[in-house]
Amino acid sequence: MSDSGATDAERYPTLTDAGRHMLAFMREHPAAPLYRNRSGNRLLAEEVELARRFEEVIPAQPFAWRAGVEPPWLAAFVADTLRRVPYYRALGAPPATLGALPIVARADLAQDVTRFVPDDVDVTRLLNFRTTGTTGHPLQVPSLPLVAARYLAYHKRALARFGVTLRHGAGQVGVILLGCQRRCFTYVSVTPTMGESGLAKLNLHPGDWRDPADRARYLDAMAPEVISGDPISFAELLRLPMTWRPKALLSVSMQLLPGLRQALAERFGCPVLDIYSMNEVGPVAVHDERCDGHLLLQPELYVEILDGAGRPVAPGARGEVVVTGGFNTCLPLLRYRTGDYAALADTPDGPVLRALSGRAPVRYRCADGSWVNNIDVTHALQALPLAHFAVHQARDGAVTVRLDAHGQPWSQAARTALQALLGPVPLRVALLKEEDKVVQYTSDLAEALG
Questions:
Q1: What Rg do the C-alpha atoms of the chain give, in angstroms?
Q2: What's the pTM value of the predicted model, to 2 decimals?
Q3: MF terms per GO, please (predicted)?
Q4: Residue 21 neighbours by CB under 8 Å, 6+ apart
Q5: What pLDDT is attached to residue 439?
Q6: Is 335 helix (H, G, I), strand (E, B) or coil?
Q7: Which end is more exposed in the chain, N or C (fewer Cβ atoms within 10 Å of the end residue's Cβ)?
Q8: Residues spanned by the domain of 402
């Protein structure tokens, strides 16, 4: 989300001298990277107070629903959305049940996302977050400064599960967001609800630095309380001689394998949170071994698990994750297909997504003719510190596992693990060159999706 045409006064409406010093500190440090973009919080004074109160309430807010039992707020939300949103208004009167509503997919949003924006949204302050995903449907997700600020409340809720409370304020760097790709949106900002603590999005790719050694120097100098990234950027972080120890690492965007999570936890001596998040919905859930899955984070987001025909699956069965609700007032969603698959379970701590994976389940044919699914493949590889990989089976049964440059040293281990699972099928390891999301599990066999 770029606002290169704005002034600093527009980017940071409540900026104080302390905030200016923090921006200068992050931009002008001798080891600083090349920040290619400009972006800010754009929060007005009254919105800062609203965001602060939101952060106080959300971490402790209970869930008012459980698997198969709709929340008490659902009927009013559906009726309000059908009244205020052009796309849904065209559907007519509110249905008797949620299940009577049609399911909406990313392709519907991509076709004309403006029809999903409520009539009363202040379009003069609208923000757009670009996302490509893996479905072939590029999308601009509408948001507002206050909506973007609310992400922090859910991250605080997730951190609280692991005993972490954020403290950094004026004169300190709170969060650094990591990327690691040839082209990356990078900027500095401040977080008003945390005393204008520093926030920076930087790129660990060497091309964004005067000296690649500056990466570790800069991170140590910034001393962020939390570092957020994805498995690709965290794999690169493991290679840097950084000495600073943050309070926590937050992995978002892609699946984080337990092997890489363990390597990060051992190296940095802090909790490593695997957060299931989507641009359309925000932070959805955090993985917690105590719950044996991903614990949901948004009490105002209702989840259904549906089969391929759009019908509810049996209790405890896996299916597609479909969501209703959310905190993005610019994009209220009714029965939105996420493209991700899981089972839904109730726990004393709230609803949990179990066996969560992106995209539709894929089966792989073993050498003896039996079948295993992609969850089995994930389990076979989970002990390895892999950040980015893809597995494909050709029509003749041959399997190709692609590992990125960081994963190449584990080529033989990956081969051994998959051969133990699949048997003596033809198997080769190749280089994965893509830097963005890829469809992890694919097959040319017609029976693979059966």
A1: 22
A2: 0.85
A3: ligase activity
A4: 171
A5: 78
A6: strand
A7: C
A8: 363-449
